[in-house]
Amino acid sequence: xxxxxxxxxxxxxxxxxxxxxxxxxxxxxxxxxxxxxxxxxxxxxxxxxxxxxxxxxxxxxxxxxxxxxxxxxxxxxxxxxxxxxxxxxxxxxxxxxxxxxxxxxxxxxxxxxxxxxxxxxxxxxxxxxxxxxxxxxxxxxxxxxxxxxxxxxxxxxxxxxxxxxxxxxxxxxxxxxxxxxxxxxxxxxxxxxxxxxxxxxxxxxxxxxxxxxxxxxxxxxxxxxxxxxxxxxxxxxxxxxxxxxxxxxxxxxxxxxxxxxxxxxxxxxxxxxxxxxxxxxxxxxxxxxxxxxxxxxxxxxxxxxxxxxxxxxxxxxxxxxxxxxxxxxxxxxxxxxxxxxxxxxxxxxxxxxxxxxxxxxxxxxxxxxxxxxxxxxxxxxxxxxxxxxxxxxxxxxxxxxxxxxxxxxxxxxxxxxxxxx
Length: 421
Hints:
2 strands; mainly alpha; auxin signaling pathway; transmembrane helix; transport; PILS1/3/4/5/7; Na+/H+ antiporter like fold
C-alpha cells in the first residue's frame, strides 16, 4: 500500500505534464494550426524574455537566503556530474551504434549530457507538493522551497548548457563541416592544404593571429615571446596582449551573449534580492514598501509553467516527421537517460549523504536525484537549429524520449520519494 500511495503521488504531476504537452502537440498540428511556427516563435520569445526570468526572480527572491544558498552548494556539483557522466555514456553510445558523424555532438552527446533541469522540476515539484497528504510536509512551505530549488536548478542548467554543451556541439559541427568539404575536394596535397586553411578561418573558434598577418617568427625553445611583423616594424607581444587575446578567444568560444540568457540574469537578480536583507525587506512580503513590484513579477511568472509546457508539446510535433536516424541511437539515448544516469545518481547521492555533504531536507535530496532522470533539455533543439544540422533527427529523439518520460519519471520519482523519506 505504501508503494501504491507513492506511485500515485509521483504519477499525478507527470500526468498533468502529459496532458498539457499533448494539448500543445495537438494545437501545433496542421489541422488546427494554432501553435504554428510563427505563433511558437512569438510565444517562445515571451517565455524566454518575460515569463521565465519573472518566475526566477520571484521564487528565488522569496525563498533563498544567504544561509540556504550556502546549504545548496552541492547542487552545481551535482548538475556538473550529470553532464560529465552523460557525455561519457553518450561517447560509448556513439562507439557502439556507430552513429553518423553529424549526429555525434548535435544529438547523441547533447541529449545524453543535458537534461531538462528547468522546466520539468518547475512543474513536477510544485505538483507533488500540492498533493493531498504530500510526502514533503506543509503544502505552502514545500511549494515555496520547491520553486526556489527548481529556479536555481534552471539557472545552473542554462550556464552549463551554454558553456559545456554549446561548445561540445560547436566543435563537433565544425569538424563535420571540415570533413565534408575535404571529401568533396580533389585528392592532392595542395588542394587539401588550401581547403584546411579555408575551413580553419571559417570555424567559429579560429586562430588568434591569421597567417597573412604573420611575417616572421623566432625560435620559442627558450620561452621567448612571439614576434609578429607589423606595418611599421617588429614589436614584441607582451604578456598583457597575450592575456587579452586569450580572453577574446574565450569570449568567442563560450558565447557570453548566450550564456547570460534572460533566465540566468533573472536568477542572478533573484539571488541578489534574496541574499541581501535590505532588498528583501523592501520587496518581499506583505509589509514590504515595494511589494507591489514583487507581486507583479510573481503574476507574470505564474504564466511560465503552462506556456513552457505547451511549447514543449508544440515542438514535439516536428518529431512526427520522417527521419533517417538509427533506431539503435534512439534506444541508446533512452537507456542512457532513463536507466544508466538515474542509477549513477542514486550511487552519487548515497555517497554524498554518507560523507555528510548534503543537508537532511528530503525535498532537496529528491531534486538532486530527479536531475539524473529528466528527459533531454529542450534547448538542444535550439542549438541544433543554430548550427543547421540534425534538426529533424533531434525532434525525433525529443518525441521518443518525452513519450517514454511518462513511465520513466513516474517510476523513478516513486523510488526517489521512498529513498529520501
